[in-house]
Amino acid sequence: MPKVVSRSAVSSSTDARPTASSTAALRVYYCICGEFILVIDKSLATLPRRQTDGATVIRCHDTEDAKARIFKLNATPQEPILVERQGGHEKQYRFHCPRCALPVAYQNTPPPAKSGPFLYVLKGALSQIQGQVPSDAFDDEALLSQSDDVA
Length: 151
Description:
11% of the residues lie in helices and 29% in strands. It is mainly β and 151 residues long. The strands form 2 sheets. Strands 3, 5, 6, 7, 8 and 9 form a 6-stranded antiparallel beta sheet that branches. Strands 4-2-1-10 form a 4-stranded antiparallel beta sheet, with no helix packed on it. The longest helix has 12 residues, at 139-150.
């Protein structure tokens, strides 16, 4: 039997400039239950927020003005719901956590994800640390309790 010999050399330099792939870090986000939900090329904290509900806006398709984000969503699509908004109604196609069924995102077009121009991540639904509740998860609860105190 022939003897297999393998050799490899690793070369690196502290003077070399980083490549585009080495500087592009992917961010991973988890549901409150700990399930992996989203991997994206940019931090959600740096993306724009929707004024109506504070959801994070992820662009799904390139336009002349902006590039689409690169992301993968691990969530199960659900039946659409109708949400009452100021000046009318909005149809939301929601995506839920596959483990605990918590709603984590929505879009205004039927599934699959990325079929519309934007995907919206619900405020307080995801955390970068597995098993940790996001700091903004209960912000709306505080607003509800304040409005109950006033009423």
